Amino acid sequence: MTSFDADANDAQLWSDVRAGDGESFGLLFDRHRDRVFRYSLRLVRSHVDAEDVTAMVFLEAWRRQSRVRLVNGSIIAWLLATATNVARNRLRSAARYQRMLNKIPRPEPAPDHSMSVLDGLAAEPAHRTVQEAFRRLNRRDQEILSLCVLEELSAPDVGELLGIAPGAVRARLMRAKRRLIHTLDVESLKEPLGETR
Amino acid sequence: MNTDDENPPVFDESRSAAFRVVLVDVAEIGTEQNRRFRVVQRAWTIVPASLLILGLSAGTFLRSRT
Q: What is the pLDDT of residue A110?
Protein backbone atom coordinates (compact mmCIF):
# COMPACT_ATOMS: atom_id res chain seq x y z
CA MET A 1 0.00 0.00 0.00
CA THR A 2 2.68 2.47 1.03
CA SER A 3 5.09 3.33 -1.76
CA PHE A 4 6.80 6.55 -0.50
CA ASP A 5 8.20 6.76 -4.01
CA ALA A 6 8.61 10.35 -5.06
CA ASP A 7 9.14 9.18 -8.65
CA ALA A 8 5.87 7.23 -8.74
CA ASN A 9 3.45 8.59 -11.32
CA ASP A 10 0.22 10.29 -10.31
CA ALA A 11 -1.85 7.20 -11.04
CA GLN A 12 0.22 5.09 -8.64
CA LEU A 13 0.20 7.77 -5.96
CA TRP A 14 -3.55 8.37 -6.34
CA SER A 15 -4.22 4.67 -6.05
CA ASP A 16 -2.21 4.66 -2.79
CA VAL A 17 -4.13 7.71 -1.55
CA ARG A 18 -7.40 5.89 -2.16
CA ALA A 19 -6.05 2.96 -0.21
CA GLY A 20 -5.44 5.27 2.76
CA ASP A 21 -1.80 6.26 2.32
CA GLY A 22 -1.33 9.81 3.60
CA GLU A 23 2.28 10.27 2.48
CA SER A 24 1.30 9.64 -1.14
CA PHE A 25 -1.17 12.51 -0.85
CA GLY A 26 1.66 14.63 0.53
CA LEU A 27 3.79 13.75 -2.50
CA LEU A 28 0.97 14.71 -4.88
CA PHE A 29 0.64 18.00 -3.02
CA ASP A 30 4.41 18.65 -3.32
CA ARG A 31 4.26 17.88 -7.04
CA HIS A 32 1.29 20.05 -8.05
CA ARG A 33 0.98 22.65 -5.30
CA ASP A 34 2.71 25.54 -7.08
CA ARG A 35 0.95 25.04 -10.42
CA VAL A 36 -2.46 24.96 -8.74
CA PHE A 37 -1.45 27.96 -6.65
CA ARG A 38 -0.39 30.06 -9.66
CA TYR A 39 -3.55 29.06 -11.51
CA SER A 40 -5.67 30.07 -8.50
CA LEU A 41 -3.84 33.37 -8.25
CA ARG A 42 -5.39 34.34 -11.61
CA LEU A 43 -8.87 33.72 -10.25
CA VAL A 44 -8.70 35.48 -6.87
CA ARG A 45 -7.20 38.75 -5.82
CA SER A 46 -4.70 37.89 -3.11
CA HIS A 47 -1.80 35.55 -2.50
CA VAL A 48 -3.36 34.25 0.74
CA ASP A 49 -6.72 33.58 -0.96
CA ALA A 50 -4.91 31.65 -3.71
CA GLU A 51 -3.14 29.55 -1.06
CA ASP A 52 -6.47 28.83 0.63
CA VAL A 53 -8.03 27.89 -2.72
CA THR A 54 -5.09 25.55 -3.39
CA ALA A 55 -5.55 23.93 0.02
CA MET A 56 -9.28 23.49 -0.59
CA VAL A 57 -8.68 21.97 -4.04
CA PHE A 58 -6.63 19.17 -2.46
CA LEU A 59 -9.25 18.64 0.26
CA GLU A 60 -11.89 18.45 -2.47
CA ALA A 61 -9.77 15.82 -4.25
CA TRP A 62 -9.81 13.69 -1.14
CA ARG A 63 -13.49 14.28 -0.41
CA ARG A 64 -14.59 13.54 -3.97
CA GLN A 65 -11.98 10.87 -4.64
CA SER A 66 -14.34 8.62 -6.56
CA ARG A 67 -14.98 11.46 -9.04
CA VAL A 68 -11.36 12.43 -9.65
CA ARG A 69 -10.33 11.85 -13.27
CA LEU A 70 -6.73 11.33 -14.29
CA VAL A 71 -5.92 12.59 -17.75
CA ASN A 72 -2.93 10.92 -19.44
CA GLY A 73 -2.06 9.48 -16.04
CA SER A 74 -1.90 12.91 -14.38
CA ILE A 75 -4.18 14.49 -11.81
CA ILE A 76 -3.18 18.07 -12.63
CA ALA A 77 -6.00 18.80 -15.11
CA TRP A 78 -8.64 17.72 -12.57
CA LEU A 79 -7.00 19.86 -9.88
CA LEU A 80 -6.99 22.92 -12.16
CA ALA A 81 -10.61 22.44 -13.22
CA THR A 82 -11.59 22.06 -9.57
CA ALA A 83 -9.66 25.24 -8.69
CA THR A 84 -11.97 27.19 -11.02
CA ASN A 85 -15.03 25.94 -9.12
CA VAL A 86 -13.50 26.36 -5.67
CA ALA A 87 -12.37 29.91 -6.46
CA ARG A 88 -15.88 30.86 -7.57
CA ASN A 89 -17.51 29.25 -4.52
CA ARG A 90 -14.72 29.89 -2.12
CA LEU A 91 -16.86 31.33 0.69
CA ARG A 92 -18.97 28.18 0.73
CA SER A 93 -15.90 25.95 0.41
CA ALA A 94 -14.09 27.90 3.14
CA ALA A 95 -17.04 27.35 5.49
CA ARG A 96 -16.86 23.61 4.75
CA TYR A 97 -13.12 23.39 5.44
CA GLN A 98 -12.80 26.10 8.09
CA ARG A 99 -11.40 23.78 10.74
CA MET A 100 -8.68 22.51 8.37
CA LEU A 101 -7.86 25.99 7.08
CA ASN A 102 -7.47 27.20 10.66
CA LYS A 103 -4.54 24.81 11.01
CA ILE A 104 -2.61 26.72 8.37
CA PRO A 105 -0.89 29.67 10.08
CA ARG A 106 -2.07 33.06 8.83
CA PRO A 107 0.82 35.04 7.40
CA GLU A 108 2.14 38.06 9.27
CA PRO A 109 0.94 41.28 7.71
CA ALA A 110 4.12 42.20 5.86
CA PRO A 111 4.95 43.52 2.41
CA ASP A 112 4.51 40.66 -0.01
CA HIS A 113 7.02 40.69 -2.88
CA SER A 114 4.97 38.49 -5.17
CA MET A 115 1.96 40.72 -4.64
CA SER A 116 4.00 43.76 -5.52
CA VAL A 117 5.00 42.00 -8.75
CA LEU A 118 1.36 41.18 -9.43
CA ASP A 119 0.26 44.66 -8.42
CA GLY A 120 2.83 46.01 -10.84
CA LEU A 121 1.44 43.86 -13.61
CA ALA A 122 -2.13 44.66 -12.65
CA ALA A 123 -1.25 48.33 -12.72
CA GLU A 124 -0.56 48.04 -16.44
CA PRO A 125 -3.88 49.10 -17.98
CA ALA A 126 -3.93 46.33 -20.59
CA HIS A 127 -3.22 43.58 -18.09
CA ARG A 128 -5.73 44.96 -15.61
CA THR A 129 -8.43 45.21 -18.25
CA VAL A 130 -7.89 41.62 -19.41
CA GLN A 131 -7.88 40.39 -15.81
CA GLU A 132 -11.15 42.23 -15.06
CA ALA A 133 -12.78 40.98 -18.24
CA PHE A 134 -11.71 37.42 -17.42
CA ARG A 135 -13.19 37.66 -13.92
CA ARG A 136 -16.51 38.80 -15.40
CA LEU A 137 -16.85 35.65 -17.51
CA ASN A 138 -19.00 32.80 -16.29
CA ARG A 139 -17.47 29.71 -14.69
CA ARG A 140 -17.58 27.60 -17.86
CA ASP A 141 -15.83 30.26 -19.94
CA GLN A 142 -13.18 30.82 -17.27
CA GLU A 143 -12.62 27.09 -17.04
CA ILE A 144 -12.21 26.48 -20.75
CA LEU A 145 -9.96 29.52 -21.28
CA SER A 146 -7.82 28.66 -18.27
CA LEU A 147 -7.34 25.05 -19.25
CA CYS A 148 -6.87 25.52 -23.00
CA VAL A 149 -5.16 28.88 -23.26
CA LEU A 150 -3.41 29.58 -19.97
CA GLU A 151 -2.48 26.00 -19.08
CA GLU A 152 -2.10 24.97 -22.74
CA LEU A 153 -3.82 21.59 -22.29
CA SER A 154 -4.86 19.91 -25.53
CA ALA A 155 -8.52 19.75 -26.61
CA PRO A 156 -8.59 15.93 -26.25
CA ASP A 157 -7.18 16.19 -22.69
CA VAL A 158 -9.67 18.87 -21.69
CA GLY A 159 -12.44 16.90 -23.35
CA GLU A 160 -11.51 13.80 -21.38
CA LEU A 161 -11.46 15.82 -18.18
CA LEU A 162 -14.82 17.50 -18.75
CA GLY A 163 -16.44 14.45 -20.31
CA ILE A 164 -17.08 16.11 -23.69
CA ALA A 165 -15.75 15.58 -27.23
CA PRO A 166 -12.64 17.51 -28.39
CA GLY A 167 -14.82 19.24 -31.00
CA ALA A 168 -17.12 20.47 -28.24
CA VAL A 169 -14.07 21.77 -26.35
CA ARG A 170 -13.00 23.77 -29.41
CA ALA A 171 -16.51 25.14 -29.92
CA ARG A 172 -16.81 26.10 -26.25
CA LEU A 173 -13.35 27.71 -26.40
CA MET A 174 -14.34 29.74 -29.45
CA ARG A 175 -17.49 31.00 -27.72
CA ALA A 176 -15.51 31.83 -24.56
CA LYS A 177 -12.95 33.81 -26.59
CA ARG A 178 -15.78 35.67 -28.32
CA ARG A 179 -17.35 36.57 -24.98
CA LEU A 180 -13.96 37.63 -23.60
CA ILE A 181 -13.44 39.92 -26.60
CA HIS A 182 -16.94 41.32 -26.14
CA THR A 183 -16.29 41.91 -22.44
CA LEU A 184 -12.96 43.54 -23.31
CA ASP A 185 -14.75 45.86 -25.75
CA VAL A 186 -17.18 46.86 -23.03
CA GLU A 187 -14.33 47.30 -20.53
CA SER A 188 -12.31 49.43 -22.96
CA LEU A 189 -15.36 51.66 -23.49
CA LYS A 190 -15.55 52.14 -19.74
CA GLU A 191 -11.82 52.90 -19.41
CA PRO A 192 -11.86 56.56 -20.55
CA LEU A 193 -14.75 57.27 -18.16
CA GLY A 194 -12.75 55.75 -15.28
CA GLU A 195 -9.64 57.80 -15.99
CA THR A 196 -10.27 61.27 -14.71
CA ARG A 197 -6.62 62.32 -14.73
CA MET B 1 9.70 41.03 -20.22
CA ASN B 2 7.39 39.48 -17.73
CA THR B 3 8.81 39.37 -14.21
CA ASP B 4 6.05 36.91 -13.34
CA ASP B 5 7.75 34.32 -15.58
CA GLU B 6 11.25 34.94 -14.19
CA ASN B 7 10.24 34.90 -10.54
CA PRO B 8 6.89 33.15 -10.32
CA PRO B 9 4.89 33.49 -7.10
CA VAL B 10 4.91 30.36 -4.97
CA PHE B 11 2.90 28.97 -2.08
CA ASP B 12 4.47 30.27 1.15
CA GLU B 13 6.79 27.52 2.51
CA SER B 14 5.67 27.59 6.14
CA ARG B 15 1.95 27.60 5.25
CA SER B 16 2.57 24.86 2.71
CA ALA B 17 4.41 22.68 5.25
CA ALA B 18 1.61 23.15 7.80
CA PHE B 19 -1.03 22.28 5.24
CA ARG B 20 0.90 19.25 4.02
CA VAL B 21 0.77 17.85 7.57
CA VAL B 22 -3.04 18.34 7.56
CA LEU B 23 -3.39 16.63 4.18
CA VAL B 24 -1.27 13.62 5.12
CA ASP B 25 -3.26 13.30 8.34
CA VAL B 26 -6.60 13.51 6.52
CA ALA B 27 -5.63 10.87 3.97
CA GLU B 28 -3.80 8.46 6.30
CA ILE B 29 -6.18 5.72 7.27
CA GLY B 30 -6.58 5.21 11.01
CA THR B 31 -5.83 8.78 12.11
CA GLU B 32 -8.37 10.78 14.08
CA GLN B 33 -8.51 13.39 11.33
CA ASN B 34 -9.19 10.69 8.72
CA ARG B 35 -11.97 9.16 10.82
CA ARG B 36 -13.66 12.55 11.33
CA PHE B 37 -13.36 13.46 7.69
CA ARG B 38 -14.87 10.14 6.62
CA VAL B 39 -17.82 10.67 8.98
CA VAL B 40 -18.42 14.13 7.52
CA GLN B 41 -17.91 12.78 3.99
CA ARG B 42 -20.58 10.14 4.62
CA ALA B 43 -22.93 12.82 5.98
CA TRP B 44 -22.38 14.90 2.80
CA THR B 45 -23.53 11.87 0.81
CA ILE B 46 -26.33 10.62 3.06
CA VAL B 47 -28.01 13.92 4.00
CA PRO B 48 -28.60 15.21 0.43
CA ALA B 49 -29.70 11.72 -0.65
CA SER B 50 -32.14 11.52 2.28
CA LEU B 51 -33.50 14.98 1.49
CA LEU B 52 -33.97 13.98 -2.14
CA ILE B 53 -35.84 10.80 -1.15
CA LEU B 54 -38.01 12.75 1.32
CA GLY B 55 -38.76 15.37 -1.33
CA LEU B 56 -39.67 12.76 -3.93
CA SER B 57 -41.84 10.86 -1.42
CA ALA B 58 -43.63 14.06 -0.40
CA GLY B 59 -44.18 14.95 -4.07
CA THR B 60 -45.59 11.51 -4.84
CA PHE B 61 -47.84 11.66 -1.77
CA LEU B 62 -49.19 15.11 -2.61
CA ARG B 63 -49.78 14.12 -6.24
CA SER B 64 -51.70 11.01 -5.15
CA ARG B 65 -54.03 13.19 -3.03
CA THR B 66 -54.92 15.57 -5.85
A: 54
